[in-house]
Design goal:
It is built from 15 helices and 12 strands. The chain folds into 2 domains: about 30-45 and about 300-395, Alpha-Beta Complex (Aspartate Aminotransferase, domain 1), CATH 3.90.1150.10; about 60-300, Type I PLP-dependent aspartate aminotransferase-like (Major domain) (Aspartate Aminotransferase, domain 2, 3-Layer(aba) Sandwich). The strands form 3 sheets. The chain has a 7-stranded mixed β-sheet with strand order 2-8-7-6-5-3-4, sandwiched between helices. A 3-stranded antiparallel β-sheet has the order 9-10-12. The chain has a two-stranded parallel sheet with strand order 1-11. It has helices at about 10-15, 45-55, 70-75, 80-85, 110-120, 135-145, 160-165, 190-205, 235-240, 270-275, 290-295, 300-325, 345-355, 355-365, 385-395; strands spanning about 35, 105, 125-130, 145-150, 170-180, 215-220, 245-250, 265-270, 330, 335-340, 365-370, 375-380. It is an alpha/beta fold. The protein is about 40% helix and about 15% strand. Helix 6 (about 135-145) links the parallel strand 3 and strand 4. Helix 3 runs parallel beside helix 11 and helix 12 runs parallel beside helix 15. The protein binds pyridoxal-5'-phosphate. Pyridoxal-5'-phosphate binds near residues 109, 178 and 252.
Length: about 400
């Protein structure tokens, strides 16, 4: 067929299609260990699995179009009833905000990210974030014709908040923080992120003295449940306390909750923004069993605690073993480890530890990990999978 390009929206004209030959299955046959997608290999709470099985009897039905039940459940979970009560703002129909109005649901937080691009990005709008980070954000910017303003991570692989602050201009529409970051697994304490958000909005107010535009801050907290620091806190707290500048905090059921295949993610934001973002929600795109399972999953917080504890135990084991094998291990805060060749490695060590070689050698042994940004990224699986991974690594680098 000729000239398909001419049919496309401008931003899609320049977006390269993925090569047919390079497309790979992301599903794996039985017997292959997946340590490449940061999934929770312990799976969801057993009660959730049981509920899912029961819900299959109703798959002939369309699901709840606006996902009201799950939104209410999430709003309850975060105590947003008090926030809604304290807020006096009404919408264009003169209605008061209800707790569930603070919640956006998407078919995975990937879908939420796409909704954000569709709602906010005009061609030329600047979007500030760090790289390497989660690739869905640059994809979103490209898809809607925005301008990527990419700040390198700091030397110790953290989001460079000072650099990002400097990069905010009058053309900035979105500022994105991924915390903990993927693929590096590093995190920044909540107090520092909160300070950054206040500062960005102060700068935005200075850049737009007429108040004609503001900057939307997006904080992706997909791995929040794994962070083991009692002083760390979620930016959801800012929304809870009634912060009234544009702030969107993203979460997902795909990671700690062990429900990636159900495709349900969510974000917490102010009702006016949530109403706007929901304009971009695709019709009927939630899965019914998914909504039910995620509602139930929030009730089993003891299970999430257990998942977190197991993750720490397994992660410590993998990190220690990798260090003993001579790798540089970036301190991990989530359910994966970013590791690479240390600076002082010899030429021979470099060859053995080469991330692409390591990834391929592991794949030969039916263990999948990633090799992003000149490093390797391994997800923390079950205790047994971690042992298999380390045993294979010993074979590969010794
Ligand atoms: C895995 C991940 C998500 C979650 O994606 P879903 O679409 O909800 O499965 C979001 N952000 C980051 C940084 C991730 O690594």
């Amino acid at each position: 067929m000729k000239n398909v390009t001419a049919l496309l929206r401008d931003s899609m004209k320049v977006k390269p299609a993925s090569k047919r030959g390079a497309r790979q299955k992301t599903s794996t046959p039985k017997g292959v260990t997946r340590l490449n997608f940061n999934e929770n290999n312990y799976g969801p709470a057993p009660e959730v699995t049981k509920l899912l099985i029961d819900s299959i009897g109703r798959v002939n039905e369309y699901q709840d179009f606006f996902a009201i039940d799950l939104k209410q459940k999430i709003a309850d979970f975060y105590g947003l009833d008090k926030t809604a009560e304290a807020a006096s703002e009404t919408n264009e129909f003169g209605e008061n905000s209800k707790p569930e109005d603070y919640v956006i649901i998407g078919a995975g937080s990937s879908a939420v990210i796409d909704m954000l691009g569709e709602i906010f990005i005009n061609p030329g709008d600047e979007v500030v974030y760090c790289m390497p980070s989660y690739e869905s954000f640059p994809d979103m910017v490209n898809d809607y014709g925005g301008k990527r303003v990419e700040i390198p991570l700091t030397a110790d692989y953290h989001f460079d908040l000072d650099g990002m602050y400097e990069a905010v201009t009058e053309k900035t529409k979105l500022v994105v923080v991924v915390n903990p970051n993927n693929p590096t697994g590093t995190y920044i304490n909540g107090a520092k992120i909160e300070e950054f958000i206040w500062k960005v909005h102060e700068k935005a107010a200075r850049l737009h003295p007429d108040g004609d535009q503001d900057v939307v801050v997006i904080v992706d907290e997909a791995y929040y449940e794994y962070v083991d620091d009692p002083t760390h806190y979620s930016m959801i707290e800012m929304v809870q306390k009634g912060y009234d500048r544009p702030l969107i905090v993203q979460r997902t059921f795909s990671k700690a909750y062990g429900l990636a295949g159900l495709r349900i993610g969510y974000a917490i934001t102010q009702p006016a923004l949530a109403d706007a973002i929901m304009k971009a929600c695709q019709a009927w795109n939630y899965s019914g069993p998914g909504l039910l399972a995620c509602e139930a999953a929030l009730d089993y917080q003891d299970y999430i605690k257990k998942v977190k504890a197991l993750n720490i135990e397994n992660r410590n084991y993998v990190a220690d073993e990798l260090k003993q094998l001579g790798f540089e291990v970036v301190p991990p805060a989530a359910n994966f480890i970013f590791f690479g060749i240390p600076e002082d490695a010899t030429a021979e060590e470099r060859e053995k530890m080469d991330p692409v070689r390591v990834k391929n050698e592991l794949a030969e042994r039916k263990i999948l990990i990633g090799a992003p940004n000149g490093h390797n990224r391994v997800s923390i699986g079950t205790a047994e999978e971690c042992k298999m991974f380390i045993a294979a690594m010993k074979e590969i680098v010794r």
